[in-house]
Fold:
Amino acid sequence: DKPWTARLGNGTLATSYRVEGATGARIQVSRTKDASTFEHVTVEAGRPFGGTLATICGEPSGAHAWVAWVDASHGTFAEVVLRSSEDSAVTFPDDRRVVLTLPDEHAVVEAPQCVADADALFVAYGVGSQPPDDSSSAAYDGLVIVRSRDRGRTFDARWQVREPGQVLLHPALALLPNG
Structure:
């Protein structure tokens, strides 16, 4: 379901996606260096991910990779989750799982976006004034951007853009060369 792809610092090409089947739902990453053989790793499993989409980003000059998605299995308030890898997406340890949403935020079931460089990781996700609906593409009226300067362990800044009365769809995030 709608994979996203990132080139990691060591030349690895990695793509993230949600898998559903007889063995249940999971967030997965596939990675390759030669575009003909792929290795697969499960990032998270055992949850009803609903309509969520997983996105991946990588540090352009290093071995760090991050996968972000919305976990809508908590009822009224969905969580935006980030899992980190320090080994070019070979593993995503449980202790590198961070929930980015605040307890009272209505995160929408839309793929979060992330982008990183050597200095910082940024993640953007949509918020709305209503509980999430995982049956369709999410309409929301706000965007939250968080920043980490320690490769996703903690987040030291949070910005919110609200457009009351407007519907925001499919945000994109980019780092420009001037920072």
